[in-house]
Amino acid sequence: MPLFSRKKSEDAPARPAWEPLPPPPPVREDGLRSLEDHRDYLLSCVNELPAFGQQLLDAVDLAICEEVISPVSLPGFDNSAMDGYAVRAQDVASASVENPVLLPVVGEVPAGRPAPHRLSPGTAMKIMTGAPIPRGADAIVAYEGTDRGATDVEVYESSEVGRHIRRTGEDVAAGHRVFRPGDQLRPRAIGLLAAIGKDKVLVRPRPRVVVVATGSELVQPGQPLPSEFQIFDSNSYLLAAAARAAGAQVFRVGMVSDDPQEVRDLIIDQLVRADLVLTSGGVSQGDYDVVKAAMPELGATEFVQVAMQPGKPQGFGLIGHDRIPMIMLPGNPVSAFVSFEAFARPVIRKLMGVTPYVRPAAKARATHAMSSTTSRRRLARGIVTHDDDGNRLVSLAGGYGSHLIGDLARANALVVLPEDTDLVAAGDQVEVWLLDEGL
Ligand SMILES: Nc1nc2c(c(=O)[nH]1)N[C@H]1C(S)=C(S)[C@@H](COP(=O)(O)OP(=O)(O)OC[C@H]3O[C@@H](n4cnc5c(N)ncnc54)[C@H](O)[C@@H]3O)O[C@H]1N2
Ligand code: MOO
């Protein structure tokens, strides 16, 4: 016993009283929270990132936050769809290969310039694709229907009023709304914005997502494994790649050991550049479950068990004074990925303002029996194919274990096996989350 001992409260550094998390949804009688309740709770705890003006090419795939009314018509003026001659349809009505019509060529209109003068009856004017139709002309004859003459042209085919003429506003009318807030700017949309003369748009930025893997057993890929009992860190790559595919700007920090102070120091350093922090590992019941041990000191946190397999242990927090959202995923690689799909991807999409936040569910016919787990939703790894009629079929990509990253890599879907069902029979329809496009 020391003679003098200081009071405990003086020893321990004062722990800031973090503003608590919003009230979480209640757990079920078995102590688990449903997948939907947990996902909706996380979504309710994050806000869309503020919008800012971006150059067009930096806005690809982002959600626009303004209504865009086209200030111009597209096309902006009647113009030619072909290189050829502007004529009056009635002047070439009788033209054929046997009986060509001969017209004097009275001028030329390149793209970007007006016609030199009005087209008089009985004459032709050379015209290039995109050039404005001269007043007096009402049809185009393409070069291929003529002898391409420079001073006079022999026309071998008839035309009709409007042939090869692209009309003002037939694509987009001036004053028409071309985008509304929330639309995601795919490359085609970027093309339209440029076509109506916009060089900047108001969009929500890509969320900056910091990815950290925890675990003293982890070794950086590319380095030698110091012992046969260590493993390469796959989760930080898996999660970074998935976050990038979801639209985030990713900072893969890599690995940190199971030392709580090291984890805290690293997270504090990273908060400054994060809109979201994703970690893997250290959220279960183990003696070294470092994330669970370290993070409550840095913010308001919650560790909960979700009624899903894999992905049961989950952590969430609003960290630091800026309350940066942090999703603490379980360490088993398949658990980390499935949890990313269920929770982190919707959150990233909400930060970006891109809807729907959740992947739309699809259906597929099971090609063989699949077993669920009692009271937990099973998200099995599946391979979706199509039958001859184009209907979706799904079979399992290997086993149910949450360490089977080889099977995960072969899968293109997650098969949702309900908690109230023990067995899905061959031929039954099941819900699938399609992970790749075009399935
Ligand atoms: N007594 C109990 N033990 C466990 C429970 C439980 O309820 N009671 N839950 C199990 C479930 S379910 C899961 S999921 C895991 C989650 O554990 P942690 O989040 O604490 O993860 P770790 O223990 O750190 O790692 C689990 C597993 O994954 C491997 N791992 C971790 N990080 C990586 C990485 N970056 N790259 C590749 N592999 C990684 C790690 O080596 C472990 O094998 O807990 C169960 N236990
Ligand atoms: O729930 Mo854990 O994620 O099964 O492996």
From TrEMBL:
Q: Does the keyword Transferase apply?
A: yes
| Signal peptide (UniProt feature, chain positions) | none
> A single GO BP annotation from the record?
Mo-molybdopterin cofactor biosynthetic process
State which Enzyme Commission number(s) the record gives.
2.10.1.1
Q: What GO molecular function annotations does the UniProt record carry, in alphabetical order?
A: metal ion binding; molybdopterin molybdotransferase activity
Q: Which reactions is this enzyme annotated as catalysing?
A: adenylyl-molybdopterin + molybdate = Mo-molybdopterin + AMP + H(+)
- The answer, when asked if Endoplasmic reticulum is one of the entry's keywords, is no
Record key words, sorted: Magnesium, Metal-binding, Molybdenum, Molybdenum cofactor biosynthesis, Transferase
Its UniProt pathway annotation is:
Cofactor biosynthesis; molybdopterin biosynthesis
Q: Where is the MoaB/Mog domain?
A: 210-350
Q: Which GO terms describe its cellular component?
A: cytosol
Annotated region described as Disordered, given as residue ranges: 1-32
Top enzyme class, one word, equals transferase
Its needed co-factors are: Mg(2+)
The entry's family comment says:
Belongs to the MoeA family.
Function of the protein: Catalyzes the insertion of molybdate into adenylated molybdopterin with the concomitant release of AMP.
Tell me the protein's name. Answer: Molybdopterin molybdenumtransferase
The record's gene field reads: moeA
